[in-house]
Amino acid sequence: MGGPRPRLPLILLTLFVSNVRDALSSRAWPSVRARIDEAHVFRGCIGMPRFSTSYHPRLRYSYSVAGQVYQGDRISAGTAYMCGSQAEVQHFVARNYPVGRTVTAFYDPNDPSNSLLKPGVFDPVSIIMAGVLVVGAGYTAHRSHASWRAARYKRLNSSR
């Protein structure tokens, strides 16, 4: 009985847990020198209202571990390290991550392709999204259980 269960909260929770794990464990990750290959400013930020005009940085950097070259694109664990006006994000990128700059990247020793530039940092947008996710998952679980109980009650009473 019952229809398909919503899987989006579970998927988002899995992503959130993975990002928190990276944020916490990255403090102990080894570091290497990396080069900023691309730095762009894109419109829109995850978790921001659609009517707002917000922007976020998107980077690509390259680094080498044990002779193998990797490319990374995360500033920190989470979905968006920074959201702001176009001018704010452009200034942030120009000041911190201009193309060609050498920066320090931190990589997961168990998976060197997993890297970030700001270890131990978890973006505030993801923290807000996590709160919404927990409330949404609780509500979904409650509604699903209530529907199941109502269907069960109806089934039991119709057989009498």
Question: In words, what does this structure look like?
Answer:
This protein has 160 residues and is α+β, with helices and mostly antiparallel strands. The chain has one domain. 40% of the residues lie in helices and 26% in strands. It is built from 3 helices and 5 strands. It has helices at 8-25, 86-96, 124-158; strands spanning 31-43, 55-65, 68-72, 102-108, 111-116. Strands 3-2-1-4-5 form a 5-stranded antiparallel sheet. Helix 1 runs antiparallel to helix 3 (124-158). It is elongated and about 75 Å long. The mean pLDDT is 81.
Adjacency order of strands in the biggest sheet:
3-2-1-4-5
Helicity, as a percent range: 40-55%
Strand content: 25-35%
In N-to-C order, the SSE pattern is: HEEEHEEH
Domain module tally: 1
Give the helix/strand class. Answer: alpha+beta
DSSP summary: helix tally: 3
Features:
26% strand, alpha+beta, 160 residues, single chain
